[in-house]
Design brief:
136 residues; binds FE2/S2 (inorganic) cluster; 3-stranded antiparallel β-sheet; 4-stranded antiparallel β-sheet; single chain; alpha+beta; Rieske Iron-sulfur Protein; 2 domains
Length: 136
Amino acid sequence: MNRKDFLAQVGLGAAALLVPACIGGLASCSKSSNNAPTNVDFTLDVGTGSLATNGGYLIHSGVLVARTTSGTFLAVSAACTHEGTNVNYNAGGNNFICPNHGAQFSNTGAVTKGPASKGLSQYKTTLTGTSLRVYS
Ligand code: FES
């Protein structure tokens, strides 16, 4: 076997190993993202900053925390389930919109417009004074 034949066989062998791994595990070939934080438990001071104003929001530890126009709080995973871009809170529509390809999610994180096909994870919130606990 000459060098050219050897490289052709090695190259084909490597490609043959890679293709079934991708076909067998389609999820690993997909661009979809599922990076929702787990075991979430943190506290924010909503007396100052963007959460002090109705309609404001921020992202902390991968969680988007929003204050609705009526003053209640929402918390969902920030990364769009399509390709991982952080979504924005749309106070006017009380929903979440991905700036990358336009996916939209309800105020509970459910998909209302693709291309995302999986919802955002929702987290609980409890307000005590100006201290907002966000948790799984
Ligand atoms: S990354 Fe959000 S719609 Fe594509």
